Amino acid sequence: MADSKKKYRAREIEFLGQQRHIVLQDVGGWSPLVEVVNVLLLGDELPEGIIFQSKAHGEKYIEKYMMESVLDTCLVRRLQTLVKLGTLTRAQVDQHLPEYRKVIVSLSKTFTIYPKFTRTNDFEDTSDKLLYSAVGIAIYHGWLMNPQDTDTSEAVGIESSAKLIIEADELMKSESKGKTDRWSLLQSIWNNQFTSYGFAHLCNDVPEGVLCLLYRDERINVLYKHKGMLHVLVTAQDVLENYPDALWRKLEKVDEDGDLLTSSFGPINVTWRENERNLIEDERKAVKQKETHRLKNAKKRGRRKDKKNTVTQDESGEANKDLGAEAEANTAGDRGPASPKYGVLGPSQDNMLRDGFMKFLKEYLLDGKSYFRDQVELMHLKGTSHLIICYGWIKTYDKELAVSICSNYFRAAEDLKLCFCDYFHSIIQENSVDTDKVELYTKIKLTICCLPLRT
């Protein structure tokens, strides 16, 4: 029940001459529910009774249960229309509606969308995809492989990203020769989820003036084609804090962000690229504040240890055991059923999870070699910044760590990314390469794939 009361910031905007609201993504994590609901909020047939609440200083927000209600109302209304048209029977609606409603409730926590590498509007028939279709929302992607590309011709037989994940998982378990080369090919395909070939087809396939969704890098965003140009709705709060008059981002290149635009699709005062230094500086400050907070906590723990450690050198071992027992007792209340070792994340478990994940990065082996060290060096050599880690690898290394990451993924994702960034930076420094750690953090992307669905 508490989760249904979760609040999301809302923003009043103008769209095609009409006053509307959109929902912003939460700072602590990204939710597909937000993007799906935004398509409906911008649509022509807006449900009645939507409540946007206001705080004392004028900031608006909407509760999660209200967003789910909007989606449910639009779903039922469209299913009833399909019954009237004879496309569906009442029996079919009664059969599928309970399943659709289960997906609506889980949509803020799970994301099961798998593009097929055949057409820009082709996806596996997962529960999420079937819900979008039932509501009448089209979804597109740009993850197409050019048949003329010899580097990926070997993988043409892989039909979708779901098959790609299965192929990668089976490959990791096999003992076949050429395993490393095959894995590098699959990794390359995964790292290029928005190709130039796919973008060209996307520009042609998306219809003019229709609100839809775009799958890109394991997320979805509202997509809209205006005067022949593709645009993505801006829902990230950190971007809007720097550019309050931005509403759309032009989608015109595969490998870099387009300009930010106003509600009328005109340019804002400063383009994204001209103000990129300010964004990097803001990110630098955020990382510095986080690091300062870590150091303060470390100093506090050090002072507590010094206060307790008043015994002689010979007795220090017993004193340390006492301190460990005290820490164990103090953090026991933070733990939940997710993992006896790591628990549901609280202040103490945050550090334990980071330490466990860093240990995994350092110690995980493939063919007797440090896998992630090799990956970092390869990424640095090729200039790539996206690493994919299979959940099964973590589970093989430390089952409790894997379960804890899965149970707390939306909260822990940024910490895990920061942890990998620290590891990346340390490896590069060992090779006598000077790299700006904060700038590195703004570029690095970490994905843990094959996470089990949460109920």
Task: Summarize the structure in words.
The chain has 455 residues and is of the alpha+beta class. It has two domains: 3-143 and 193-274, no CATH class; 278-449, mini-chromosome maintenance (MCM) complex, chain A, domain 1 (2-Layer Sandwich), CATH 3.30.1640.10. 49% of the residues lie in helices and 14% in strands. It has 16 helices and 14 strands. It has a six-stranded mixed sheet. Strand 11 and strand 12 form a beta hairpin. Helix 2 packs antiparallel against helix 3, helix 5 (161-173) runs antiparallel to helix 6 and helix 13 packs across helix 14 (399-407). The longest helix has 33 residues, at 276-308. It is globular. Residues 309-338 have low confidence and may be disordered.
Explain the layout of strands and helices.
Layout (H helix, E strand, L loop, with lengths): L6 E9 L2 E6 L8 H10 L11 E2 L5 E4 H22 L4 H17 L20 H9 L3 E3 L19 H13 L5 H13 L4 H10 L6 E5 L2 E8 L2 E5 L3 H6 L5 E4 L8 E2 L14 H33 L7 H16 L15 H17 L1 E2 L2 E2 H12 L3 E5 H7 L1 H9 L1 H22 L6 H7 L1 E5 L6
Parallel strand pairs: 5-6, 13-14
Antiparallel strand pairs: 1-2, 1-4, 3-4, 6-7, 7-8, 8-9, 9-10, 11-12
Helix pairs in contact: 1-2, 2-3, 3-4, 5-6, 9-16, 11-15, 13-14, 14-15
Q: Give the termini distance in whole angstroms.
A: 14 Å
How many individual helices?
A: 16
Shape: globular
Structural class comes to alpha+beta
If strands are numbered along the chain, what order do they take across the biggest sheet? 5-6-7-8-9-10
GO cellular component, one term: cell periphery
Protein name: MINDY deubiquitinase domain-containing protein
GO biological process, one term: protein K48-linked deubiquitination
Biased composition (Basic and acidic residues): 283-294
